[in-house]
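Protein: HTH araC/xylS-type domain-containing protein
Species: Bacteroides cellulosilyticus CL02T12C19
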Amino acid sequence: MQTYSACGAAISCQQCPKAVGNAIIYASHSRGFHLPAQKCEENIMIFLLEGEALVNSQEYAGTILRAGEFILQAIGSKYEILALTDVECVCYRFNQPEFFCEERYKYIMKEITPPLIFTPLKIIPELRFFLDASKAYLTKEKICRELLSFKRKELAFLLGEYYSDYDLSILVHTLSRYTSSFEYFVLQNHLKVKTVEELAQLGGYTVVTFRRIFNSVFHKPVYEWMMEKRKENIVYELRYTNATISEICYKYGFESLPHFSNFCKKNFGTSPRGLRSVQSVPPQETQTICEEAG
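Structure follows.
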């Protein structure tokens, strides 16, 4: 579809740089549609407008999602869906839990105990109005990034304003379960590999999915994070362990001692031997000394 700007030039909305692979999407499926079991590559909230669908996941095992209800499947979780009737839905995909403020997220995590059995949340009238309006935009060919950005902010407001901490605990604790386990996996295994590809493979993820989940949990690119940890560990081993410089060099994948020396000079301003000569007190000893001094 083409429209025209004020100057009369033809514009293709599908080629506009503001067009977007929608973070908020509308979908409709016929009865019998089956989405096979798969691992979520993003967090996804499914708002069912019409029909009924059978959802099967750890959180919603054998649950029938009905019109006027919604659920969240967290990044890294597995789920499958079967349409029991013709269905219509609006879905919101996102990486970071940005639908309400971080402080409230932490409060709910710490203070609010979620229900033992998760059930879909009800779509209140205010949210239904939002979803119907979103559907009207999303079924057209003209989709603008700025418009969808506003719609995401509106959704955040509705969830935060009209749903209780107890309601939102279902979403918060679901997100936390997967991000926490992913974080544990990364912290336990990042030293066992040398590349992002190897770490992704170790966890059974494609590289694209792994990068997306990592950004959601750690809020920075995985390569940048791995480099920071690598530098921290090198400094620690040079200052606080008895491993030889050669052992540390080859442990962290350097091809030669000159290569390792150049890396240290570039990143720390001195050679490996210079770092080793720094008289530092190991962290655990520092704490003991402070306690004794107190």
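Remarks: Residues 34 and 82 are 5 Å apart (CA to CA).
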